[in-house]
Amino acid sequence: MEEKSLQSLKQHSELLAQFIIRLSKFYEGFSPDIDTELQKLRGHLSGRPDFTLAAVSVKKLNKTLRLADLTVRKYTADTLSQLEEAVKKLQHLLISEPALTKESAQILISLNQPVQSLFVLQSLCNKVLQLFQYASNVDSEDTYAARNVSTSTLALQKAILDELSQLIDTYTSKNPEDVQLQALRAKLKKGMTEDELLQSCIAIVRMVVQDSLSEASLSGKVIQSLHNALGDIQENVSQSIERSQSNFAARQSSHQEIKAKLDSIEDQLRQAESLEKLKKQAQAYLSSMASTLSEREEAEQKEQAELMTLLSAMQGQLIKLQKQTQHYRKKLAEQIVSTQTDALTKLGNRKAYDERVEKECQLAIDKKTPLALAVVDIDYFKSINDKFGHAAGDKTLQIVGKHLKSSLQTKDFIARWGGEEFVLLFPETDTKELKVKLEKIRVSLSKLPLKFRQEKISLTASFGGTCYRVGETPSAMFERADRLLYRAKHSGRNCVMIDQETI
Ligand SMILES: Nc1nc2c(ncn2[C@@H]2O[C@H](COP(=O)(O)OP(=O)(O)OP(=O)(O)O)[C@@H](O)[C@H]2O)c(=O)[nH]1
Known about the structure:
binds guanosine-5'-triphosphate; 4 domains; alpha+beta
């Protein structure tokens, strides 16, 4: 071989050796077997390269790398499926976060694409990590949604919070100045930990018990005063009976007196010796009878006056009693209305719904007519609170409540179920008619001209509707409608989902 080409071969070999050393350093750390062999290979190639030993190392590395390739592929596939599973679980917790739900859907699409290199896998891992980070922030904003709690626990907590919020509203409308209630309200708006939620529940239960005790004492007072008034009347009546008994006795004795005098006149007439004597005696008897009669008349007048006084006293007591019972009846009626009214929207509350639905189901059975129920939930309501404040959220609830009520017929019924959810009852309505009615309401609601801080808001709601099935409980019917509402939410919101089965 010529000197020149020998020189060039040597240069190429050295270049190749350098390249292999750098490449092997790059892959160092992949696996202990490969690391050892790469170290050996670097030894064979540095200084004065020994290509024969290097070739042996390369052969061994070839075999190990082939196996490693399979391991990497399996590792990549496993990692991808673990990531996919984790993102899917996370999606359940992010239902209320549209932006994060969208983000997680995109990550799921990427996870299902072929992965060309470990760098792609790493970038996917980073994205998933980021999503978890966002989700944990959402978590800490919603303090009551404690970490690692299941969706059903969250739903339960939400239901408790809604119920608590309604109770607080009811009591606030009765006692607007109550400091404890104001503090509870503020806490509720801010969000609560599980412990705070429990403490608030206890505070409210205490309030309810106190309230019912004071109600009981009020009822006690009214009953006591009714009892006293009845006692007075009873005494007056027995006094009057006693008096009329003694008057009767007096009258009888005065009658006997008159009768005795008449008998005596009769005797005198029979035994009369002279007319003059008879005349005198008759005059004496007649004047005595006249005085007896006038005494009697006087006594009777007195008796009559006493009776009149007694009767008018009794009448006064009866009027007082009537007024008291009327006041009590009015108070009771007010209490019934206030315990069944939602303080914010002035619509019926859950208690009112519970009573009404029982009645409507019974009517549907008796009259063999269909009864439809719909659950309505405002879409992305949280974003109104977040963007414009809780007061704007409250106003929205009032407007929506009013609009829904005005869309109903007098035979229909509406209640605020809690939060941003309303429940509607449509007697004598089947699923087909229900669909038409709800679609009409949905469209009109989406056209409501809402404006906050000069910004026009487009508001929509999702609907779940079903009809009563004979034999089922009202809550089974409600749960079916609620599941349909859930489906409406997951189908993109602003739509009506109806159960096709009818009565
Ligand atoms: N202003 C106000 N907000 C309330 C009231 N009751 C419940 N909320 C809020 O309503 C929001 C309901 O939010 P989500 O259940 O996440 O539902 P959403 O934002 O409407 O979203 P989707 O129902 O999924 O379309 C929560 O932020 C509650 O704090 C209330 O009486 N007044």
